[in-house]
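Re: the multi-chain job from yesterday

Posting the exact lines I submitted so nobody has to dig through the queue logs.
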Amino acid sequence: MTVGNRPIALRGAAEQRAAELRAELRHHDHRYYVLDTPEVSDAHYDALMRELAALEEEFPELRTPDSPTQRVAGMPATTFAPVTHRRPMLSLANVFDDGELSEFDERVRKLTGEAQVTYVCEPKMDGLAVELVYEKGRFVQGSTRGNGVVGEDVTANLRTIRSVPLTLEGAGLPQLLEVRGEVFLRTEDFKRLNARQEEAGDQPYVNPRNAAAGALRQKDPAVTAARPLSISFYEVGEVDGRAFATHWEKLAFLRELGLPVNPRNRRVEGLQGVHDAYAALLEDRHGLPYEVDGLVVKVDSEDLRLRMGAVSKAPRWAVAYKFPAEEAETQVEDIRVYVGRTGALTPVASLRPTKVGGVVVSRATLHNQDELKRKGVRIGDWVFIRRAGDVIPEVVAVIPSRRTGEEREFVFPTTCPECGAPTAREEEGAVIRCTNEVDCPAQMHQQLLHFASRNAMDVEGLGEELAGQLLRARLVRTPADLYRLSREQLVALERMGEKSADNLLQAIERSKHVTLRRFLYALGIRQVGEATARTLAGSFRDVRALADADVERLTQVKDVGPLVARSIHHYFQVPTNRALVEALLAAGVAPTPPEEVSGGALAGKTVVLTGELSAMSREEAKAEIERRGGKVSGSVSRKTDLVVAGEAAGSKLKKAQELGVKVLDEQGLLALLQGG
DNA sequence: TGTCCTCGAGTTCC
DNA sequence: CTCGAGGACA
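And the result, structure tokens for all chains:
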């Protein structure tokens, strides 16, 4: 027996799945709209909705009037007065890739009979849609979208938004004007708000949109006022005595009235124009001061819009082209502890591999014990993860409602997982360390890698894998042993040919000629990074002199305070460290003190490099600047004399412009280096 | 004493 | 890149 041409069993399964999906979607709607505490990401919600829509497409008899697919979204809360929109506030259909966008464009052209359509592209700000009503130019009522037909009266809260004009100016104001826009939190304001939440001991918000939703739904407008919401307008609803031929005209009208309109809106021609706008926005996405989750594409001509109309919940003439999700949820399969160069124990979550922000993420750091405790992550937990731009993936929050009771609390080890030595927490410090200063294999491994790294001794070819092999084969215990390696010993290692062995030996040999600053940095003394190593090299000019210096003498060095001084002094008090230095010197490592530079072209200047340089690497540029007496620093401040901005320079360039610091491009730098 | 500026350290993926 | 904290300086 079949229904239509499908076996009944299949239909039965579909029916059951549809019921499950509906129940789940309703649950999430409640969490999201009523409780303001969503427990799944938008991407997850979208996926459920799409699955349900697909099922209903295939089995139309399953499409019930109360299905979540049949209404816009959400439900009115009980705490605010209901407002019925004069015209329903529709939501937008989503597309997720080029193919789906092309289908949209094709549909538009077919329905309108046009060969090419003009579109308006607007950044889709991640916030909440609202409608504001102006009567004779006075702001009289504001409401949320709600379910699209009935929303909530949030007039008092909207009044607290500084960029919402309470009265409109200008000649020929309409008697009645409805405007629609998005309420959102700027990224900066979001961070500040969350910092305050945490200080007050409250749960931080997962993202700016939820924070904005929370702020808008405050019963006390004073609380809303303390949360600096922003607004951007993009549509006109009901309006008296004013007709618009295009959407672009409408946006201009809004702007003339003094209503904020996004300056990134673009009017483009055809599909290609939309593609370009999308690519450009995606590129700038993280430079914008607010979160954007896609591009809204609207047919510009009002006439064409009328001819196209709307389907049940969304207009046919517009679509939201979504960016790849930067948030996802996944399960914590395990929590492991890694031991770093300084012995710091770092808990890392092993995640079920999940695609987020375009890449598959399988690990995320939990930083330290405090962080772990604050987030309350347990093994087996479902968590929100987020990866914005090039930023390292992070666990944002646990999703408590997905707990089954099977989750295990993670117990921070009291002994080092690598060497078994007891672990200890430093006074006032957040990190827990392995107390074995001498022969913890993990620390030895990391120290060896650090010693050989590019900015230290620069032993090319000595990476993660090889360092491990050398240690395991007991060919190397300290960095000094590198200088005793023979060709025979190396060739005996797995995956090590004669050519590779020779290359490595050469690299090791080359590293004997090293500057004192690199040498000091390579030792891995705690609190001594590249910058401190440089000042120490200039001040002492000899390792043994540094090793013999007492705390008082060390403190006299610029940028060295009591803590750094004690750390250096302590390092040379440990006999094995002292022995290491002597062994290195005996092996032929000959650190050279820096040349005295005086009166170079950049003497005494602080320079910051940002962006991508093409003619030289960052390291080369740094060396050239230093040779002329300049100092290269990592962050821009008022004390910075010059910022060199290469290709695709980001936040540092912006900061330089804000502070009025002199900026040069790469050409400018080259000219300066040559001239000097 | 408080504020600003830097530096060190840790980290993920390709 | 970000966080936290050391160090300089007013």
